[in-house]
Amino acid sequence: MNNAIEVTIKNSEPRVSSRLIANGLGIQHKNLLELLETYQTDFKEFGTFAFETRKSKGRPQRFACLNEDQAYLLLTYSKNTPRARAIKKSLIKAFREARETLVSKTDYLPCYHECHDAISTLVRKSGSSTPEPIHHMNVEKMINKAFGIPVGIRSKLPPSLRAAISMAERIAGVHYQRAMDTGDDHKTAYKAAKAAIERCANTVRDSLPLLNGEAAE
């Protein structure tokens, strides 16, 4: 039996469909809905709770999207069967991953946007034969390389590495802004940002977690 549960982000909050829980428990969804209806006052104590209707194969299906607390509360109202215990473990993992994904998308965004706004402004001011998106990509590749981060895994990084990336974005943004203030071009800004970020990475490298079993290099 596959106990994997998919948790989705709805209005910036991880949620799980009651249909998936019913399937994991091995019971009919209509029976689970009856339980939710009977105790819906209890579920409302733990956040927004409402039934939704969506068409599936031309027929409307009623279900509820539960937050983490509501999902665990629902399982306390279910029999403590092996399937119930298995789905509870699966939910813990799924909600944890969803929270980490949310954090990864928000914790360094302010510095990210400030950095790339500065890059855009300086590149346009300096003039470059290289398309502007390449300048943005080069800075992100440089940051990844400095901290030993493979391409495409930022959403899965631990908090300490995301904080390091945020710091690097801030450093790059400062140097691009400084170049604008002093009349330097984007090439000068990139070199200065790269040197500063590499110094930063070398300083904090030993305190950062391992990636794929190896220290960031």
Mind explaining what this structure looks like?
The protein contains nine helices and four strands; from the N terminus they run ββαααββαααααα. By secondary structure, it is α+β, with helices and mostly antiparallel strands. The chain has two domains: 97 residues, no CATH class; 101 residues, no CATH class. The chain has a four-stranded antiparallel β-sheet. A hairpin with a 2-residue loop joins strand 1 and strand 2. Helix 7 runs parallel beside helix 9. The protein is elongated. The two termini are 40 Å apart.
- Contiguous uncertain segments of 5+ residues: 212-217
Per DSSP E runs of 2 or more residues, the count of β-strands stands at 4
Structural class: alpha+beta
Major sheet details = 4 strands, antiparallel
Instruction: Count helical runs.
Output: 9
Computed Rg: 24 Å
List the domain count as a whole number: 2
N-C termini distance: 40 Å
Instruction: Give me the strand/helix succession.
Output: EEHHHEEHHHHHH
Mean pLDDT rating: 85
Output the strand order for the largest sheet: 1-2-4-3
Outline, from the CA principal axes?
A: elongated
Helix content: 55-70%
> Approximately what portion of the residues adopt beta-strand conformation?
5-15%
SSE order and pairing:
Blueprint: E1 8-10, E2 13-17, H1 18-25, H2 29-38, H3 40-44, E3 51-56, E4 59-66, H4 68-76, H5 82-106, H6 109-126, H7 132-147, H8 159-182, H9 186-204
